[in-house]
């Protein structure tokens, strides 16, 4: 059989993203963590079903765990099916774990999941060291985003009138 090259879409398939995290938190540093999953969890993820909206990460006995990630039960699973919101272990290098644990012990820092995807056949979770935003920070960020969008729109319409494509 001929070996078929996988396209980039097949190698890095994004299953779920946490768009609200970038709104609610100031992202300071990101990491890519492997996940310890059962077979039915992987099959459910391959169907493209997951939610990171309520997820967070905690340290327990020196290990990093992802909690409240929603991976629904696999429909064709039997008695071996997993719990939808169970605690899942994250795999990082020891140096990264120590660095993260020190920063989380400081006041105001937390670890939030940003996206869940497959990379070369393995499930990965992009996590971020983050600091919570205040309400006025969120309003300011939305206003800035809206202003940028309006400025781009004005430039586009001006260029269209001038005949620049």
TrEMBL record:
GO terms (BP aspect): trans-translation; trans-translation-dependent protein tagging
Annotated keywords: Cytoplasm, RNA-binding
Main location: cytoplasm
PROSITE patterns: SSRP (PS01317)
GO molecular function per UniProt: RNA binding
Keyword rRNA processing on entry: no
InterPro entries for this protein: SmpB, SsrA-bd_prot, SsrA-bd_prot_CS
Gene3D superfamilies noted in UniProt: 2.40.280.10
Localization terms from the record: Cytoplasm
A single GO cellular-component term on record: cytosol
Function per UniProt: Required for rescue of stalled ribosomes mediated by trans-translation. Binds to transfer-messenger RNA (tmRNA), required for stable association of tmRNA with ribosomes. tmRNA and SmpB together mimic tRNA shape, replacing the anticodon stem-loop with SmpB. tmRNA is encoded by the ssrA gene; the 2 termini fold to resemble tRNA(Ala) and it encodes a 'tag peptide', a short internal open reading frame. During trans-translation Ala-aminoacylated tmRNA acts like a tRNA, entering the A-site of stalled ribosomes, displacing the stalled mRNA.
Family according to the record: Belongs to the SmpB family.
UniProt protein name: SsrA-binding protein
Species this protein is from: Pseudoglutamicibacter cumminsii
Organism taxonomic ancestry: Bacteria, Bacillati, Actinomycetota, Actinomycetes, Micrococcales
Gene that encodes the chain: smpB
């Amino acid at each position: 059989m001929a070996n078929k090259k996988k396209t980039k879409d097949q190698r890095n398939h994004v299953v779920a993203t946490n768009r609200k995290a970038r709104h609610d938190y100031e992202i300071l540093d990101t990491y890519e963590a492997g996940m310890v999953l059962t077979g039915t969890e992987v099959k459910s993820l391959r169907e493209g079903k997951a939610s990171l909206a309520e997820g967070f990460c905690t340290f327990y006995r020196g290990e990093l765990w992802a909690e409240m990630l929603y991976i629904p039960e696999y429909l064709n699973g039997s008695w071996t099916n997993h719990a939808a919101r169970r605690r899942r272990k994250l795999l990082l290098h020891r140096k990264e774990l120590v660095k993260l644990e020190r920063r989380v012990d400081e006041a105001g820092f937390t670890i939030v999941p940003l996206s869940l995807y497959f990379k070369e056949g393995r499930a990965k979770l992009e996590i971020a060291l983050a600091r919570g935003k205040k309400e006025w920070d969120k309003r300011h960020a939305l206003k800035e985003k809206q202003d940028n969008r309006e400025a781009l729109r004005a430039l586009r319409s001006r260029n269209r009138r001038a005949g620049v494509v």
